Amino acid sequence: MPDLTGVHPAWLPPGAFRAIGARRVLVLGDGLLTGTVRAEAEQACARHGGALERDGTGSPDLVLALSAAAGQAPAAREVLTGQGGSAIGEEGYLLSRRDGVTVVLADDPAGLLYGFFHVVRLGEEAFTGERPGERHRPAARRRMLDHWDNVDVHPVMGQVERGYSGGSIYWRDGGPRGDLARVRAYARLLAATGVNAITVNNVNVHATEAHLLTDRLGDVAAIADEVRPYGIRVHLSVTFASPIRLGGLPTADPLDERVRAWWARATEHVYATIPDFGGYVVKADSEGQPGPFAYGRSHADGANTLADALAPFGGVVHWRAFVYNHRQDWRDRSTDRARAAHDHFAPLDGRFRDNAILQVKHGPMDFQTREPVSPVIAAMPSTRLAVELQVTQEYTGQQRHVCYLAPMWKEILGFGPWGTDGRTVADVATGASGDGGGLVAVSNVGDDAYWTGHPLAQANLYAFGRLAWDPRLEPDALLDEWIDLTFAPAAGGDPGPLRRTLHAMMDGSWRTYERYTAPLGVGFMVRPGHHYGPDVDGYEYTPWGTYHFADRDGVGVDRTRASGTGFTGQYPRPWSDVYESPDTCPDELLLFFHHVPYGHVLHDGTTVIQHIYDTHFAGAEEVAESRRLWERADPGDAALHARVQELLDEQQRCAEEWRDQVNAYFFRKSGVPDARGRRIP
C-alpha cells in the first residue's frame, strides 16, 4: 500500500488485514495482479506477525492460487479436483475452507485479487469452521466510475465539476499532479469493492482536456500505469469534435471517410501507448457539447464511428443518452425534458455496434432525489445499455449532508420495467451472461483527507462498487461491511455501539433528505448553478426544462397521455397505465406525473399540502436526532468525529432552511394552514 501520511485509509486501514497478516499465506501463480496479491499478503504478514510462504511444501493457513498453479499445494489441488474441472470464469473466484486451510482459487489473476479482498472483508470469519466451496463472479463485465475532473481549472466548475471533496487526484492547474501515489491508493480502494474501470476527465471536454487524446496522452498513460496493478482499465472522455480541434479537418461528420480515418489513426496511437486502454466516453449534442446532429446524422452514426475505431483493439465507446433541449420556453407546457432521451434514442434500437454502450441515467431527468426509472432502459432490447448513477451527491446534499444512497440504488436496480414478473433494471444492465453495458457512476472522490469530504460519504463509494459487482446485495449488509472494515480496527475489533449509531443515522438518510427537500418527486427546487440549498422557483422560469408549475390551485407536471406531455406512454405496461392515473400513481412520484390540487388525498389519507408540511418538519427533526446521536458516538478518531460533527451542524442548518422555505412557499401559494398548528414563517 502506498504510504500516504495524513490521508484517511477509508475501508482499507492496516488493521483490516490483521486476520490475513497473522497467518501463513501461500500465493501461487504468475501475472501482474497475482504479484499485487502477493505483495499485499507480504505486507500484511510483515505488519501482523504472519509469514508469506514461498512454495507449497509448508503448511499454510491461506492459499491463494490460480487454477493453473493449484497443483503445487495439496489444499488448492483438492479444491480444484472438487469442482470437477468446471471453469470458475472471468474475474471470478472460488472460496473454500476445509481441514484448517482457507483456499481462494481463480482462473485469472483478476479473480485472485477479488478473492483476496473477499477474505479481507471476512476477517477472522474466513478462518473459522468449515466453508463449502462458494463461487463468486461479477454480475457485469464493466463496473465503472466516471470522474468529472478538469485538467484546467474551469472558471465556473473548478478543478472537479460537481466535486465536493477538494481538488482532483489526477490533475492540478492545467497539468498532472505529479506524485500519483494517491491514484494507486485509490485504485486499491476500488479493487477492494470490485470496480474495474475509470475515466479520468470530465464528460464536458474542454480545450485542454481534448488534447489528452493526442499530444497529452502520456499523462493518461501515467495514470494507467498506477491503476493497472489493481485490475483497473483507464477510459477517456473525448469530444465528438476531435477531428476538427485536434486533426485540423474541416468536419467531424461521422460518415465522412476522412473523419473515420482520423479516429482510426488516433485510436491506434492510443493503444500503442496504453495497450489495455478501455475506450472512450462521449457526451454529444448535450448542454453545448458538439455532436452528430450538426451534420444531420444520428447518435448511432456518431457512436458507431468511434466503435469501429476501437473494435480492432477490444475497446468500447460509452455514448451518453443525456441529450435534451436546454433552451426550452418555460411557457410551453407541451415540451418535456423527461421525454428527450427516449425520443432521441428508442428509435435507434438495434443500430448500435456491439462495442457501443449506450450510457443511460437511471432517471429521465438528472439524478434527482426521487425520479421514476428512465423508460429508455426498457425501450432498447437490442442495444447494450449501461445504467448511470451518481455517487457524488449533486442533488442529495453535496457530501455536506449524510445521505446513504445504496437504498435508492437498490430500489432502482430492483425495479421491473415490465412488471413484477419481468426482468429488472439490474438484469438489463448486466445482460444475460454479464455481457450487458454494466453499471457506471459519477465518482465522489477528491484530494480531501477523507477522500469524499464527508467521512460518511465513503459508504456511498463503497456501496456502488459492491452493488456493481452484485446488485442482489442488501444496503444494510453493505453498510455493515463498510463500518466493520473502516472502524473495527480503531474500535479494537468491536464496532458494535458505533454500528448501531451509524445504522440509525444512515439507513433512512436518503428518505430523510427527501422529506426536507423536494416533495413527491417534483424535483429541482435547488439554487441554480451550484444546486445546493433551497430555491423553490430557482429554475421555474429558466430554459432548463425543470419546472414544478406550482400555482394557487395546485402543483406538479402533467405528463399523462390524456392531457399532458404523453411521457407516461414511453413506459411499457403496466407502468404506462399505473403512472397515467393519480389514483394508481405511487405517491412518491405523484407530482412528477400529475398536476394536482393541494387538497388531493394521497394513499395514506393525507392531503398533498399537509404531506408537504409534515415531511418537512419531520425531515429537519430527523437530522437533529442524527446530530444528537453522533455527539455521543466514538469512532476511535477525534478528528473524524469533529469533521462529521461540523458537517451535521451544517446539515441541520440547511434542513431547517429547506423546511422553512418550502413550507412558507406552499402556504403562501395555497393559503391552507398547517393542520397541526406549527409555525410557518
From TrEMBL:
Pfam family, one: Glyco_hydro_67M
Listed InterPro entries: A-glucoronidase_C_sf, GH, Glyco_hydro_67_aGlcAse, Glyco_hydro_67_C, Glyco_hydro_67_cat, Hex-like_dom2
Taxonomic superkingdom: Bacteria
Domain Glycosyl hydrolase family 67 C-terminal: 452-678
GO MF terms, alphabetically ordered: alpha-glucuronidase activity; xylan alpha-1,2-glucuronosidase activity
GO biological process: xylan catabolic process
PANTHER family per UniProt: ALPHA-GLUCURONIDASE A
Residues of the active site: 287 (proton donor), 366 (proton acceptor), 394 (proton acceptor)
Domain (Glycosyl hydrolase family 67 catalytic): residue spans on this chain: 135-451
Protein name per Swiss-Prot or TrEMBL: Alpha-glucuronidase
GO cellular component, one term: extracellular region
UniProt lineage: Bacteria, Bacillati, Actinomycetota, Actinomycetes, Streptosporangiales
Family label: Belongs to the glycosyl hydrolase 67 family.
Keywords from the named record: Carbohydrate metabolism, Glycosidase, Hydrolase, Polysaccharide degradation, Xylan degradation
